[in-house]
From TrEMBL:
This is Aldo/keto reductase. It comes from the Bacteria. The active site is at Y57. Substrate binds at H115. InterPro entries: AKR, Aldo/ket_reductase_CS, NAD(P)_OxRdtase_dom_sf, NADP_OxRdtase_dom.
């Protein structure tokens, strides 16, 4: 366990390859330049050990600088990046990962994901084979995917015999993805949540969230992030504000009741935007 800025331990869970992963991570999207490095530095100082970046975030260098500057040992950090759509393919995935490592200044990634399946391109199985090769070479410790459907996960497993360690997907109380989370659990895939706090406002004013916050003496954001933990997902909230980072990480000193979890899940209304992995593609 590591500790948040409030001294509360941040637990880990084991992936299907036996490696531990912290139960909350720091999203780094849009954290660029010196301000971005400072924000990531603050996150590490505030207790985060799981750092989530991607080629398409254009900030792997900043993440690498923060890691290099941090007093926290490299082996105590869990660094994730993602392969973009334009790098799909076996050889392309290997080259992309080598470039990510060079930008990060690291000799390995703790977790590497396929960022989007881009089904019209038809190369995500070949890209997955590239990740398996990277894992076998020791350049990547754990391998997974992002924004994959249950059918896509099944296709990867049937084609290669290797089950992704993680599937990182849009997941928040307005889009709880209950069936997909249950499927992940049934095959041993760990769910991670991007945009776990939603992005477009209004969520924190919902009655089930304000009532739970009052009952537990915590912030609405903490209730939402604790809900992610309760349903079995690892949230990756993004904040550049050190105080908010610490508050977000301080979710392991209380639990929600089953009724509170169910009420929050009952807020379901759909995705934030039209980002259905069957049709939405990013290069």
């Amino acid at each position: 366990m590591t500790e948040s800025g409030n001294g509360t331990p941040i637990p880990t869970v084991d992936l299907n390859d036996g490696r531990p992963i912290p139960q909350i991570g720091l999203g780094t999207y849009a954290m660029t330049g010196d301000e971005g490095v400072a924000a990531i530095d603050a996150g590490i100082a505030g207790g985060y050990r799981l750092l989530d970046t991607a080629v398409n975030y254009q900030n792997e260098r900043e993440v690498g600088r923060a890691i290099a500057e941090s007093p926290v040992a490299r082996e105590d950090l869990f660094v994730t990046s993602k392969i973009p759509g334009r790098h799909h393919g076996f050889d392309e995935a290997i080259a992309s990962t080598e470039e990510s490592l060079a930008r990060l200044g690291l000799d390995r990634l703790d977790l590497h994901l396929i960022h989007w399946p881009n089904p019209s391109v038809g190369k995500y199985v070949d890209t997955w084979r590239g990740l398996i090769e990277l894992r076998d070479r020791g350049l990547v410790t754990s391998i997974g995917v992002s924004n994959f459907t249950a059918d896509m996960l099944t296709e990867l497993i049937e084609a290669t015999g290797v089950t992704p360690a993680v599937n990182q997907v849009e997941l928040h109380p307005y889009f709880p993805q209950t069936a997909l989370v249950d499927f992940h659990r049934s095959i041993g895939v760990q769910t991670e949540s991007w945009s776990p706090l939603y992005r477009d406002g209004g969520l924190f004013a919902e009655d089930p969230i304000t009532e739970a916050a009052a009952a537990h003496g915590v912030e609405p954001a903490q209730v939402v992030l604790r809900w992610h933990v309760e349903i079995g997902s690892i949230p990756i909230p993004k904040s550049a504000n050190p105080a908010r980072q610490r508050t977000n990480a301080d979710i392991f000193g209380f639990s929600l009741t089953p009724a509170e979890v169910a009420a929050i899940s009952g807020l379901e209304r759909g995705r934030m935007k039209d980002r259905d992995p069957l049709t939405h593609e990013e290069m």
